[in-house]
Each structure stands twice: as structure tokens, then as C-alpha cells.
Amino acid sequence: MESSFKSLNMDGHFDFKDIHHAASDFGNRYHFLPVAILYPKTVSDISSTIKHVFNKGSTLDLTIAARGHGHSLQGQAQAHQGIVISMESLRGTKMHVHTGELPYVDVSGGELWINILHETLKHGYAPKSWTDYLHLTVGGTLSNAGISGQAFRHGPQINNVYELEVVTGKGDVVICSEKQNADLFYGVLGGLGQFGIITRAKISVEPAPKKVKWIRVLYSDFHSFTKDQEHLIALEDTFDYIEGFVIINRTGLVNNWRSSFNPKDPLQASLFNSDGRTLYCLEMAKYFNPEETDDVNQKMDNLLSKLYYVQHTLFLSEVSYVDFLDRVHLSEIKLREKGLWDVPHPWLNLLVPRSTIYDFSEEVFGRILTDNSNGPILIYPVNQSRWNAKTSVITPSEDVFYLVAFLSSASPSSTGSDGLEHLLSQNKRILDFCGRAHLGVKQYLPHYGTQEEWQAHFGSKWDVFARRKLTYDPSAILAPGQRIFQKANTQHSRDLRK
Ligand SMILES: Cc1cc2nc3c(=O)[nH]c(=O)nc-3n(C[C@H](O)[C@H](O)[C@H](O)COP(=O)(O)OP(=O)(O)OC[C@H]3O[C@@H](n4cnc5c(N)ncnc54)[C@H](O)[C@@H]3O)c2cc1C
After folding, report:
1. Which Enzyme Commission number(s) are listed (predicted)?
2. Which tens digit of pLDDT belongs to each residue from 23-33?
């Protein structure tokens, strides 16, 4: 097999030896060793490789996974005994910022969002919709959705793309957009890598601000917290970023903010005591340029005056736009220093309809979880109207739904409450409750063990999803790590059948 690939005419190269890192990811729980890694230099390297595997049919027992930055949680970018394509090697292709009526940046599918930020800023622009962490690739987030505190207004990242270049599971290179090959375009967006490999994307940008006012306020009452979040995301003239998180049994947490956030009312804030209550923190940001400071302060005061947070719990910070967007990277650096980044991450991401978020919170924050010392729990609403229903991503069917993300890190050797088993069983209890109580919850970055579960996840959209698979990747070569479809005769499918 090695020689058959070496005979292909390539600009990049295959590595058959140094392959172990492609069998790991951020989740650090699933490890499938490939047979080779392709480091493509050109789109034609990717196309030739896929064509080669496709044309050999079942005689070549191989699947192919695009690997972005490998920040998946359960082996989604891995290919057991297959080929992993290191998409970051395509990054060499230059980024182009196009100004004009509908400005956009044209980037490689393997580009990191942090690099896109820096490049677009040179032209005074930046993408509109982000993820909380920017060391992820375009292809990786567009295969899911790409959600952060801007999504209530701009929709997820998949709603901010004008055009894609995709290599399908037959090796065809196809340009697609709303107007051209729309079925593939919408299929690929949120399509979990099932229909093609994204090699280029044209991403919508807007003029970038220089600075950010970053604000946190606290609630002890879930109703007031969510009511205020929903009020803010419904307004036209509102904050530019709206998120929130839950604080369960963490007395010192607010004190830890003191290094970066200033209480508006230091004396009163120092007297604030959570008394062991669960707290909810509404996090907001307003973008501005220095010359607009007075105006932006006035707008913010006006917005804040209509909120029902606990008195004297307003915390403020002012940072550059880059520091705000790249904020999680600072935590990464600190965690790496302590050896706490490369640990198992049994994360659970859910999309919860507005009508059931209260029941969800009562059970999950009130009964299942006793604290959140293993990692943050994010919770914030978005507007369904900003999500294009034609894409492949699955959301609850209500006008407003919440992203709830349990971002735990496990202590690798522990069998206690910070151990992997405990955290996984907590996730299972949450999922079981959502199912039992019929809350209409959908998984984000979904992960299932059987095709029946995948069908239930996709619901009425399953037929379209399965039809697209047959059209664009009929041999089920691509993204085997998602475990939705199986190539009939791979080692992996044989192992699974045993
Ligand atoms: C610290 C951290 C913070 C995060 N924060 C957020 C957040 O705020 N919002 C959010 O939405 N997500 C967030 N995520 C999740 C993240 O968006 C996904 O895990 C994403 O898949 C990671 O991107 P990646 O480039 O590492 O992709 P990978 O893990 O490498 O790949 C993910 C999937 O996409 C496929 N794929 C990769 N590249 C391509 C391509 N070019 N074409 C087609 N398919 C491809 C892979 O085969 C795989 O199935 C976060 C993850 C981490 C680790």
C-alpha cells in the first residue's frame, strides 16, 4: 500500500512512520492509529489521495480523516488504520482580504482562526462570528457550527460563509455557495466532515473595533438571569457579545477575577457573600473605538440599568479586541504550565430549548452537580432566526435555545469526584435526565455509539443527511471518526463487528 501511495504525483508528502500524534486529540480519551499522515501542499494532493482510495473501491481497505487542529473530543478527526490529512499544512496558501460592499476573507480550510484574526486586522477588518477559543481551524469549526457570544446576532460561523471549495469523497474539487452547488454547500456546513473536505472558505468580515468593554454581573436567581439574557439578545441595539456561566459551590471564584476585573463598587462588592448559593454570571462585551468612549459608556449604562442582577456585583474590564477574542489562550498557557492541558476532557455540549431550560437547570444545577470545580459551565441563549435551517447542524426547534457546555477536565489518576469515571457518569445522568424528561435537547459536537442514535439526533433531517452521504461520499471514506457511516470493509468496521 505504501508504494501505491508513493507512486502518486504529489506536491506534499506521506509519512508512514511518525504517525502517533494523529491518534490523539484534545479529549484525550480515544486513540486510533492511522497507517499514514498526508501533509498536503495543494488541493490536488488531497483530491488525488481521495480519488486513489475511491477508485480502488473495497480492494483498498482505507478511510480518510481531515485533521484540523485535532481539538475534537472523541476521536472525530482520527482514522483507524486509515489516512489522516494534516489540514494545517495547506495553510501556506495566502489569505486574501476583499473589501467592498460585502467584505470577506478568503482562507485555507486548515487555517487557524487566530491567524485569520491577525491577518484581517491588518486591513481593519475581522470575522463577525467566533468561537471562544481561536486555536481551531476553519474546516474543524465549519464542520460543526462555531458558536460563541456573537452568535445571537450573527448566527454561528457556518452562517457567515459565502463560498467553499470542497473535495468530495470521490475526489472531485467543487466550488459551492448559496447559488452554486447549494446542496453540497449546505450539506458541508455543520456536516461533521461527512460530504467533503473544506479546502478554502470565503468568510464574511466587518470593520474591526480596537477595544472592548467586558462586563460581568451576578445573579442568585436563575429566572432573572435567563430573563435578562433573553431580553438582551432580543434587542437591536445591545451588547456585541453575550454569554454566561454557572458557579456552583465555588466560594473563591469571584475573588479570582479581581486580577482582571474591577468591581464598580469595590467596598460593597467586597461585602458580597454567596453563602454557598449557586450563582449565575452574565457576561457581556461592548466593542468600541477610543473616540467613541463617552457614547459607548452611556449606551452601556442604559442597558445595564434595565438588568436585575444582584446589587453591587458589577465587574468591569477594558481590553484590546485581540486580547478579548484570544482570552482562552491565556488560560491555556497557564494550564500547560501546570501540566493540566493534556488531561482527559469529558466535555458535554448541549442545545436546550428555552421552554425547558428551567426544568433542565433545576435538575442539573440543583441535583446532579454538587460543584463545578472540574471546569466552567457555560450557558447562554441564541436566536434560532440567525441559524440557517438549510445547513446540516441540528438545533432544537424553538425560536430561542441555549448552549450549555460542561467543560470538565479529569484528573487522569483519580478515582474520586475529579476522576474521569465520575465525570462521565455525571454526563450520563444529565443525558438520561434530558431523555427521560423529553426536554427536546440536542447535542452540539454530537457523539453517539449507534446509527439509530444518529438517526434520532437528525430526526426529520436524517433522510437528507443520508442521501447526501450517498451522493458525495458513496464509499463512506470520509471522517470515519464521527462513527455515523461505516465503510463496509475497513479494519475499524470489522473490529466493531467483533
Ligand atoms: C479549548 C476549546 C474551546 C472550544 N470552544 C468552542 C467554542 O467556543 N465554540 C464552538 O463552537 N466550539 C468550540 N470548541 C470545539 C471545536 O469547535 C471543535 O472541537 C472543532 O472541531 C475543533 O476544530 P479543529 O480544527 O481542531 O478540528 P478537528 O478536531 O481536527 O476536526 C473536527 C472534525 O472536523 C473534520 N474536519 C477537520 N478539518 C476539516 C476540513 N477542512 N474539512 C472537512 N472536515 C474537516 C474532522 O475530520 C473531524 O471530524 C472548542 C474546543 C476546544 C478544545
Report:
1. 1.5.99.12
2. 999 999 999 99
